[in-house]
């Protein structure tokens, strides 16, 4: 049984979350707290496996509590967030501090929607329970002057796919990128509003330019293009270079955007000029695409288990023999760039 503690100042939400969570036979709600101080006591007494945590609460906000928790007693946390333009930067900060995942607040409008919500919440709690949790500490990146001197061919492309734990993994890869790096295309499983905030956050944090991809963007060195949260991102080759293509076609591997869509487009556009990395994430999206890239002549990397929050997608790739090598997260940037120098 996965023991869950609910932390939310609304009695209605606490009751609704309890009802939804206990529909699953493998999840037990062991307690509910209306503020972080009560939560602190219940954590000591009940020793839950997973915490669901509201962001906006009285006495102490969820972010402050999360920061204290991840320093003193790291444990899996799923943030219960308002999925809005206002709420997205705060939720992304929670992921930076160490929350495993987030989900919208439940509503009681339609029973069918509540059933869909229940399935998603159960999945996120199960994933969180098996996630690799670390104590919170600021990311410190030392400049690698050797990377800044590398020379890349004009047609080289870097591609990254990720899901659960991916926003922070992508950040760790991008902050190490030199300003002259090849263009980077990224698919992260993330809701629409959050992809915009995530791209803006990365642009402020990194030396390179980062943006949410737009249909028709020409890939340029020193730029990273992040798939919008509700559209597939592909790369197409046309006269004059490589371009971003967006579409809202059917879900692939239950996702839109899907990593396989991005990777498979590069198999057609420029496989031998591509270096691709599949990072932390639940499920297997991207594994088949990475295999296709590998077989078409791309250099392919899977994140290793110890540095992954959830070793699902990279593991699926490793089991398919889709990766040229399995690499620790803090070494992926350097390895991608060193391989990009060699592309045809």
Tell me the strand order in the biggest sheet: 8-9-7-6-12-13-14
What's the β-strand tally?
14
User: H/E element string?
Assistant: EHEHEHEHEHHEHEHEEEEHEHEHEH
Largest sheet: 7 strands, parallel
List keywords for this structure.
344 residues; alpha/beta; seven-stranded parallel beta sheet; five-stranded parallel beta sheet; elongated
Write the layout of secondary structure elements.
Layout: E1 2-7, H1 11-21, E2 27-33, H2 36-46, E3 50-54, H3 62-72, E4 77-81, H4 88-97, E5 101-104, H5 111-129, H6 145-148, E6 157-162, H7 166-174, E7 184-188, H8 192-205, E8 209-212, E9 223-226, E10 232-238, E11 241-247, H9 259-269, E12 274-278, H10 287-295, E13 299-303, H11 313-319, E14 325-327, H12 329-340
Parallel strand pairs: 1-2, 1-3, 3-4, 4-5, 6-7, 6-12, 7-9, 8-9, 12-13, 13-14
Antiparallel strand pairs: 10-11
Question: How would you describe what is shown here?
Answer:
The longest helix is centred in the middle third of the chain and has 19 residues, at 111-129. With 344 residues, the chain is of the alpha/beta class. The radius of gyration is 20 Å and the shape is elongated. The model has no long low-confidence stretch (mean pLDDT 93). The chain has 12 helices and 14 strands. Helix 10 links the parallel strand 12 (274-278) and strand 13 (299-303). The chain has a 7-stranded parallel β-sheet with strand order 8-9-7-6-12-13-14, sandwiched between helices. Strands 2-1-3-4-5 form a 5-stranded parallel β-sheet, with helices on both faces.
